[in-house]
């Protein structure tokens, strides 16, 4: 006896006819009759009384019918309960974000996840791009945001947006207010002292590559991995820097710096949301991912993220 046979038996009793049940079940009548014959043989009793007007359950058939209804209902309830449990966001979700976005995303994602998904525990880390990539590839985190031109086969990527890079300098007394729409040729990079990252990461790689292509030498005054220190050097006027907009948005709004988009050639990069390929996202990770996507959209609307949002990304992907 199996659940399929019980469903077939219920349908025959409900329809009062083997042929009617066969049509409802989309099964050939002889096959359906054979299933019932097998069931009667296994139980060693007749379950149906057949007549010219159809079929009715025997006394034994009525007992089986009532049990079958309960069993099928319990099976459905069990299936629904398991699916609901699997779709309920709970457990720990670890995310890693670059410094440029961490200050903007971390408070928002923490607030929203706490409010919407109280059974989800967030672990938020801030790392530079190369570290983010390594952490995702090695499944040390569930989700990460990074800029990369070298996608790994060990990760899944969802394109978020394309952003320009800016030459950022201290706004001096008498300087006109910076609207954020001004541009400057890449050539200007070679005439100012610069602060860049110590190790090779997305921004420094781009700056060094364009310098090499143009046959020019950078005036690299100081290097540091600290975003806070880079901004302090720029604010003090000791150096200029090459940064994406989210890194200095607060300073720009206070009127402390000027920022000009680097063009000729355009310095732009792609930002992705990524997760380990060998670690399918559970309900909690999918919920957090959607919140991160929504937050990026909102930061774009507020002018903190600048550039071009990805047109083709789905609102919610379920791998």
Write the layout of secondary structure elements.
Layout: H1 3-15, H2 18-25, H3 29-43, E1 48-51, E2 54-57, H4 59-86, E3 91-97, H5 99-116, E4 120-126, H6 129-137, E5 143-147, E6 155-170, E7 183-185, E8 194-196, H7 202-214, E9 220-223, H8 227-236, E10 240-244, H9 245-253, E11 257-263, E12 268-276, H10 283-301, E13 308-309
Parallel strand pairs: 3-4, 3-5, 7-11, 8-9, 8-10
Antiparallel strand pairs: 1-2, 5-12, 6-10, 6-11, 6-12, 6-13
Polypeptide structure, described:
With about 325 residues, this protein is of the alpha/beta class. Helices cover about 45% and strands about 25% of the residues. The strands form 2 sheets. Strands 3, 4, 5, 6, 7, 8, 9, 10, 11, 12 and 13 form an 11-stranded mixed sheet that branches. A two-stranded antiparallel ribbon has the order 1-2.
């Amino acid at each position: 006896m199996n659940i399929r046979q019980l469903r077939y038996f219920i349908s025959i009793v409900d329809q009062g006819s083997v042929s009617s049940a066969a049509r409802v079940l989309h099964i050939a009548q002889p096959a359906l009759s054979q299933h019932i014959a097998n069931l009667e043989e296994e139980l060693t009793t007749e379950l149906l009384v057949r007549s010219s007007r159809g079929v009715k359950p025997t006394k034994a058939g009525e007992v089986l019918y009532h049990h079958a209804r309960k069993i099928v209902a319990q099976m459905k309830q069990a299936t629904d309960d398991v699916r609901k449990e699997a779709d309920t966001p709970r457990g720990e979700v670890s995310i890693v974000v670059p410094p440029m976005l961490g200050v903007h995303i971390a408070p928002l994602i923490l607030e929203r996840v706490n409010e919407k998904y109280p059974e989800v525990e967030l672990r938020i880390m801030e790392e530079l791009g190369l570290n983010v990539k390594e952490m995702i590839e090695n499944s040390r985190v569930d989700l990460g945001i990074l800029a990369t031109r070298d996608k790994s086969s060990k990760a899944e990527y969802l394109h978020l947006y394309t952003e320009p890079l800016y030459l950022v300098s201290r706004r001096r007394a008498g300087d006109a207010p910076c609207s954020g729409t001004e541009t400057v040729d890449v050539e200007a990079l070679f005439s100012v002292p610069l602060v860049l990252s110590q190790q090779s990461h997305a921004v420094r790689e781009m700056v060094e590559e364009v310098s090499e292509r143009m046959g020019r030498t950078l005036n690299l005054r100081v290097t540091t991995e600290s975003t806070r220190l880079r901004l302090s050097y720029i604010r003090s006027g000791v150096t200029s820097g090459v940064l994406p907009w989210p890194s200095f948005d607060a300073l720009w709004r206070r009127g402390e710096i000027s920022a000009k988009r680097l063009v000729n050639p355009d310095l732009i990069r792609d930002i992705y949301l990524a997760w380990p390929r060998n670690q399918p996202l559970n309900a909690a990770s999918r919920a957090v991912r959607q919140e991160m996507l929504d937050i990026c959209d909102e930061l774009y609307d507020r002018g903190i993220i600048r550039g071009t949002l990805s047109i083709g990304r789905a609102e919610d992907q379920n791998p």
